[in-house]
Amino acid sequence: MSGFLHDFSALMTAWDINLLRDIPILFGSVFVLTAAVGVLRFPDLYTRLHASSKLVTLGSAGIYLGVAADFSDVAAFTRVLAVLLFQFLTTPLSAYLIAQASYLRGLPAVLHTPDEGKADAWDIFGAAQDISQIRRLQAVQEEEELPSPHSG
Amino acid sequence: MIINLALAIVSLSALLVSLRVLRGPSWGDRIMAFDFLGMNLVVLFALLAVRTKLMAMLDATVLLSLLAFLSTIAMTRYLLLGRVMK
After folding, report:
1. Hey, is the C-beta of B28 within 8 angstroms of any chain A C-beta?
2. How many domains is chain B partitioned into structurally?
3. Mapping DSSP to helix (H, G, I), strand (E, B) and coil, where does residue B40 land?
4. Contact between B28 and A22 using a beta-carbon 8 Å cutoff
5. Its domain of life (chain A) (predicted)?
């Protein structure tokens, strides 16, 4: 048993493994990668903002905690804590401002009306839908609904 | 060393988000993706601080997070109002 522990500690020093540093850093980097996949694959700006703001906040918090555990110094810890608090304050604010600007500029959400059997037709959970295509379809529909100025 | 693996993962996420910058159908998508890239850069500098054992990199993370937030605010104001300041 003590031989196994000795081998394990030798392996940890050989590969430079510090569990207090490495577990939060791996956790955080996996969450950042998940946020990137969500930003790439969600169908809508608002859902992409959800992925970007929440998951990046969690992942970067994990990475900063790992960095602070690696330095184990008061000066480094205060800097990392400053960055962490600043990002916790500003990430929701910037996501809110982007959503507000896009909404007031008239960007439609994919799911802005209740689902009337359109979720299967749009293939929301299968492939990302291009918003510009939806807007083009809506413009064509509005042109068809409006009476032509030369008809009457 | 785990730091190299974490650097590779964060760089891969930056590449994926830069695809969204190129593709993004609306301006809001591009602004959001640039915001994501800014936060990604802050995380990369923190990981590089661990790898190079330099504490000046942590000062750089403070400044980079400030710059990312201010540039996002400026771009959203330009998107909404057509101007940044009065």
Report:
1. yes
2. 1
3. helix
4. no
5. Bacteria
